[in-house]
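Hello forum,

I keep getting stuck at the same step: I have a sequence, I want structure tokens, and every attempt I make locally crashes halfway through. Rather than fight my setup again tonight, could one of you with a working pipeline run this one for me? It's a single chain of 534 residues.
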Amino acid sequence: MRRTSLLLKTYLRRDWFKFVVWALCIVGLAAVSAGKFNSLYETEAAMASIIATLKTPAMVSMFGPMTATAPYTVAVIYAMEMMVFMGFFMAMMNIYFAVKNTRGEEDSGVLELTRARAVSRNAPLTAVISQLVIINVVMGVLLTLGLEVSGMNGVTIEGSLLFGISLAIFGMMFGSFSLLIAQLTDNSRGATIGSYVLLGGLFVLRMITDVQNSDTTWWTIYGWIEKLNIYDQNDWFPVLLMLVLTVVVCTVTVMLNRTRDFGSGLLVLNHQQKSSSRLINGPFSLLLRLERMPLIIWTLGMFCLGASYGSIFGQVGDLLATNPMMAKILGSQGTDNANLAVVMSFAGMLSVVFAVVSTIPALQIIFKINRDERKGWLELIHANAVSRLKVYLSYLGLAVIISGICLFAAILGMYVSGSAAVDYDLDFSKFLRGFTSYFPAVLAVMGVGTFFVGLMPRLQNIVWFVPIYGFVSIYLGALLDFPKWAKQLTPYGWFSKVPTHAVPTEPLLLCLGIMIVLGIIGFITYRNRDLTVN
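Reply #2:
Ran it on my machine without issues. Output:
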């Protein structure tokens, strides 16, 4: 295919810095965690304690079932805790590059200019596939080397190779899924949403099957990364499955790319209207109209996510199954109280996860100010008698609404499903504490986003590190023995005792203050800068 190699060089040259940032974050997390595990589990007592913890339903839902056999090593525990988590980040990286360099290029018009030259129809897609292969090969090598030099007890060359290669192919597999979805949708936003819906859906299916029947996890695709038994039996069969599926999906994608029209998708998700609705009478109603489908998808997705986690409350809060001797000692009422305490503690951690996920659509809406500005869409709005303040508040207001609805939907889904899964009563008011506390945390992060949108629009993507770090510090903080101050570097860590305790007033007011102050600064700087600054 003509010009494939030239396009590949162009993509690699253009995206090298973005890839370096991704590599530093992912490989750095893997290497730093590996270096710390020896000190965490250097004694037999610590090893026995973490193994017992990892076998509980709550931990199984997060990291997968414990399949390794005794004698256990630190490396086995590391692979057990990190594979599901690292796989998620590898998938995110591949989704980003896959959508950006395919559907994103079409939306911006760059691909149209490229194809106006002597370039074959499939050359751009083939170049993107080749770029993903190179990126994942480099990541696989770096991850393998990072583990080999970590000095972690129990590390073997075969296990490290399996760790690096499996994550590389796992990421490439989800990159191929994104390339396929990009052929079906007609814009980059739809391709991104579709890719993350698939990733999140498979992750939730993995979680449910792991807790209820781990044998059925084979059907979730995501669960393949749990079946490797790294540093124990080192099973390469799941790697073969991922590789075969990746090749098949890439082949189908290339075939579909030959048949679809440029700039369109194979699925028609909306029909163009000859005239706009009468309800569209300003920037907010226009923005709400344009974002109605993502809002519906996010709301339903968050409700299903909460319901999925709530459905395993029966297994998580089952002291009789996990510790029958303790259940006999406590008696029926005492066992119910103990089960409830475990469930509420688990719900508190999940509330943080829901808050982090709810931040994603909020920041996407806020950052749309600059994206729409670059595309020239806001120029059409400002040509009318519409103030900067009205436009700014329209984006910010919709971001607040979407994040609030998403967080509430997730907590409601968790409560409804959890109530049906347990034999004792759950107090909805305590679940609402999760919303009351973590929604201000989301607002605080949104305030940081508005600050960058107005003052430093070119650097606005830096804000994504706040929810990402918040997720890592909460999700893995306890297992990696993060100090208390490290967990509280983001607003998500300021409400760690909720919902088992009342909502603290000072952090709540601090979050609201951050939102208001940074929001005002963001607007002032946005109002004073030129539209062409980007």
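Residues 324-374 form the longest helix (51 residues). If your local run keeps crashing, start a new thread with the error log.
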